[in-house]
Amino acid sequence: MDKDKKDIQDVVDKIVDEAVKAKTTIENSAETILENVSNVKVKSNDKKHKLEIKELKDKILKLEEEIYFQKGLRNADIANLTKKRNEQESVIRKYGSANLAEDLIKPFDLLKKVVEAPNDNPEVKNYLTGFNMVINQIQNAFENNGIKAMGVKPGDEFNSNIHEANELVQSTEFDSNKIVSVISDGYMIHDRVLVHAIVKVSE
Q1: Localized where (predicted)?
Q2: Alpha carbon distance 63, 73 (integer Å)
Q3: CB 188 within 8 A of CB 168
Q4: Exposed site from 2, 90, 129, 178, fewest CB < 10 Å?
Q5: CATH superfamily of domain region 99-202
């Protein structure tokens, strides 16, 4: 991201430099023309000199219009680059934790299954209490970054956009294309699928 920001800033700086140089060149030309105008000595009846003055004034007007136009173009370019940079930063803030979260989800789900498995051993239960605390902390961290479990359950309609069918099975309990069982839940990061839910689907 730092490299992208630097690249965009470099482009902005280059555009600003070019705009300043163009403005300086045009303004210098305008000053030269104005000096020429002031140096022209005319008589009231000298039509030729009057025409020259008019032409010089027209050139000055065109140069002023060009300066105004170029300023507008440069400002628009800078505004567009700034908008693009802000959009990129917003996307990174929103989805920047996706790769790390994806790596953590499988061991996180495995830890949850260990804790949820029935166990009457008192010593093991003590460990499970500690595991539960870890699970809650990880879950809070996920939610703070916009990551949530889909909460897929048997009976839901299969949707290939968010579900992955591990197996097609015959079922008397569920209609066709319904989820029969959930092997592992899926996860979303804001409005994007982070991990598809792995499910068994009725034929």
Answers
A1: Cytoplasm
A2: 15
A3: no
A4: 2
A5: Head domain of nucleotide exchange factor GrpE (2.30.22.10)
